[in-house]
Design brief:
The protein is 35% helix and 15% strand. The chain is α/β, with parallel strands linked by helices and 333 residues long. Bound molecules: thiamine diphosphate, iron/sulfur cluster and magnesium ion (MG).
């Protein structure tokens, strides 16, 4: 290969993209919606990690948050309510070379998609899963979700939700093969970025719960936490997030937590006020499903086409005359 061709190739691989090259359309989310902060952090991450748009896929279910793939100039799949995870797993199985992200709401993941959530954690495929937890069904205009606080009046709970909210962190940390769990609040952009970046760098199914504002249907619900930094518990550890001096100055309520300690992670996860933020659990040694499954077949286009054709041939009804002439057909004599 000539030096010039080699240089061209190298440039192609090391291609840098501006932020705008990951941005698509104007988000339709309400002003002040936490989804906007998550989108900004993810677009910055894609730029900083030089993710090639044609090698990156965002998969979502249905909900306000699930509009996410529309706003990324990458591949995307705005799929079916509750089914973001199995679809993302299918993409990853077929194309392990792609960066696959999942954006799912608290209704999408913890209600209709709950069974898929459990199994996605257990399969531990290399995905970055972002749970946009606004504690409500936003898109369908205010029905209670599993993470809605007890007593919340909504269209489905006019007398107030009867049950205590489900805690997505403790649930996830209780599932076999869990390998990465983190939490952050949408109003601290620096931490949103750092947590999603740590999740992206983890090889396995990284689950990030983002406590997200929905000013439209949960107005002022998170204000007490937003306005009082002491109601945020910053998790610190040399193996955790790097906490800048300016952040540490504001968020003085801190606790040392080793992300390798699962029992302590479960204990921290069960604290809901103050809201713990940072990496709760990380175990890079949990095997990924892609690595342990036995069939390691090279899926070339020809192989797939050949397989499909032989399956279709089984159901072909040949006209009488062709049956006689068909090569290899049993002799009529
Ligand atoms: C099978 C199916 N059931 C119900 C719906 C209606 N539906 C659409 S979005 C949604 C809930 C969305 O809530 P969430 O996942 O929390 O997303 P948010 O809008 O809050 O971001 C529901 C019930 C649907 N589209 N498909
Ligand atoms: S309804 Fe809530 S979740 Fe949906 S876009 Fe508006 S603020 Fe965001
Ligand atoms: Mg929601």
């Amino acid at each position: 290969m000539s030096t010039r061709a080699h240089e061209c190739l190298m440039r192609m691989y090391e291609e840098e993209h501006d932020l705008e090259e990951y941005q698509s359309g104007v988000p339709r989310w309400c002003t002040g919606c936490g989804d906007n902060a998550i989108l900004t952090a993810v677009q910055r991450l894609c730029r900083d990690e030089k993710l090639r748009p044609e090698k990156t896929v965002f998969v979502s279910g249905i909900g306000c948050s699930s509009r996410f793939p529309h706003y990324m100039k990458t591949y995307g799949f705005h799929s079916i309510h509750g089914r973001a995870l199995p679809i993302a797993e299918g993409v990853k199985l077929a194309r392990p070379d792609l960066h696959v992200f999942v954006n799912t709401g608290d209704g999408d993941c913890c209600s209709i998609g709950a069974a898929h959530w459990v199994h996605a954690i257990r399969y531990n495929m290399n995905l970055t899963v972002v749970l946009h937890d606004n504690h409500i069904y936003g898109l369908t205009k205010m029905q209670a979700s599993p993470t809605s606080p007890r007593g919340l009046r909504s269209k489905t709970t006019p007398r107030g939700a009867y049950l205590e909210a489900l805690n997505p962190l403790t649930v996830t940390l209780g599932i076999q093969n869990v390998s990465f769990v983190a939490q952050v609040v949408d109003w601290v952009p620096e931490l949103v970025y750092d947590v999603i970046a740590a999740a992206y760098h983890h090889r396995g199914c990284s689950f990030v719960r983002i406590v997200q504002r929905c000013p439209e249907f949960m107005p002022n619900f998170l204000d007490p936490w937003m306005h009082d930094p002491n109601r945020t518990l910053l998790l610190t550890h040399e193996k955790g997030l790097h906490i800048s001096a300016s952040l540490a100055k504001v968020y003085k309520n801190q606790r040392e937590h080793d992300p390798a300690d699962l029992n302590h992670a479960r204990e921290v996860a069960s604290v809901e006020d103050p809201i713990p933020v940072g990496i709760l659990y990380r175990n890079p040694d949990v095997p990924c499903y892609e690595d342990v499954r036995e069939i390691k077949q090279l899926r070339t286009t020809d192989l797939i086409r050949g397989g499909l054709e032989s399956e279709f041939d089984k159901f072909t009804v040949w006209p009488q005359e062709q049956q006689v002439a068909a090569p290899g057909a049993p002799s009529q004599a």
